[in-house]
Amino acid sequence: MKKAKSREPNAESLNPLKSKTILLGVSGGIAAYKACDLASMLRRAGAEVHAVLTANAREFVTPLSLKTITRNAVHCEQFSGDGEWRPEHIDLAQKADLVLIAPATADLIARLACGICDDLLTTMILASRAQVMVAPAMNPRMLEHPATQHNLSVLQNRYRYEIIPPEVGEVACGDFGAGKMASLETIMATVGARLLSHRTLAGREILVTAGGTREPIDPVRFIGNRSSGKMGIAMADAAYARGAEVTLISTVEVDRPYPVLLVETAQDMQEAVETEFDNCQALVMTAAVADFRPLAVSEHKIKKTESEDLLLELTKNPDILDLLGRVKRKDQIIIGFAAESEALLTNATDKLRRKNLDVIVANDITVPDIGFGSDDNAVIILNEDGSRENLPRMPKRAIAEHLCDLLAERFAALEKPKSKVPN
Ligand code: CTP
């Protein structure tokens, strides 16, 4: 029998995080004891680890343990008094490729959400421009508390922050529920995915639309829809992280490092998309565009005393995708979205064909808890060749990563020289 050739592990597979600098922030919860194992795993994966401990973290884990494991000085004090003229938190914060906070207590999460920097760790995070990963760990009731949930959603919606969700299980105090810090394997996998995510869309010009349009009735009222813009923003963020030159046309205001064009109505969106379309290689149209708008917009607030009934006459809005599908060049890719309440596949396939799209992402809006306004969705991706892929419930960011993979594959296929057909 032939012996299978054993593959020599190369330096890269042994040290996937080589040349990456990670700032490991540890706050004061019982899960802090796991920070030593985590630091060791990161270091063995090749990363340069600098641990920063809050005062409370030092009640659970000693700086000496982390210093020995990371082979680097451990930082605790904001005002150490000695050392270089330049404060160490600025240097380290700027050097870091990633800030990983594990465990993150409810208190630390609250301080981060408010931008408070009253100790070394929070100051360094504020001074850094690196990606910040937060692995919460706390009692389930503290996690459930509206204040903590609010603070987590503030961080989640902030560019550069990623929450590594806590797991369900028995926590140190004996209570059972969500609140256990994610396993070290999950944390390592998430860190790896973020730091090693390849720039597969480097230089690609990608236009994304997000949010629901608002069609004014009078100076106060409008016709709107339930779209939160989360899918489009996640798509734009994911493409940008992969090196794409992203332009986001959005009805929702967001602060991002790439250009965001704020629009309100379907007509504004049409104008902006048409202006940008020629220069883009892919359009991802997640926006929920109102199909109709009031025929006339009242200059003054409509008074309820004017009559018993109010009849609004509506007129059709332009179908932006339909218009662009007609002028699309061969080197451009268009992805549309279809939110359906019935006959999901039939309706989505019909839109894919009718609007000359390359891909349509369909979701069933009757499924509770996902889709509009939620951080998660479950979708079916339909391709123009009839193939399709089911993505079960997952965060919108994960759906966006999937679409980025799909775009990267399609760009590669577009550029592949066509083999000559022999005579
Ligand atoms: N869309 C668009 N312009 C419109 C309406 C929709 O560009 N006026 C785009 C959406 O951004 C989405 C796709 O078309 O990517 C499908 O939108 P959807 O609202 O599901 O479908 P409609 O074409 O509006 O059809 P219907 O309302 O009959 O379902």
Q: With helices defined by DSSP (H or I, 4 residues minimum), what is the helix count?
A: 14
What is the strand tally? 19
Helix content: 25-40%
Q: Residue ranges: pLDDT <50 for 5 or more in a row?
A: 1-9
Please give the CATH class of the largest domain. Answer: Alpha Beta
Report on this structure.
By secondary structure, the chain is of the alpha/beta class. The protein folds into two domains: 13-194, Rossmann fold (3-Layer(aba) Sandwich); 205-294 and 314-414, Rossmann fold (3-Layer(aba) Sandwich), CATH 3.40.50. The chain is built from 14 helices and 19 strands. Helix 4 (88-95) crosses helix 6 (120-127) and helix 10 (230-241) packs across helix 14 (396-415). The radius of gyration is 25 Å and the shape is globular. The protein starts with 10 loop residues before the first helix and ends in an 8-residue tail after the last helix. Bound molecules: cytidine-5'-triphosphate.
Tell me the layout of helices and strands.
Elements: H1 11-14, E1 21-26, H2 35-44, E2 48-53, H3 63-70, H4 88-95, E3 98-104, H5 106-114, H6 120-127, E4 131-136, H7 140-144, H8 146-156, E5 161-163, E6 167-170, E7 176-180, H9 184-195, E8 205-210, E9 215-216, E10 222-223, H10 230-241, E11 245-250, E12 260-262, H11 266-277, E13 282-285, E14 292-294, E15 314-316, H12 320-327, E16 333-340, H13 344-354, E17 359-364, E18 376-383, E19 388-395, H14 396-415
Parallel strand pairs: 1-2, 1-3, 3-4, 4-5, 8-11, 8-13, 11-12, 13-16, 16-17
Antiparallel strand pairs: 6-7, 9-10, 14-15, 17-18, 18-19
Helix pairs in contact: 2-3, 4-6, 5-8, 10-14
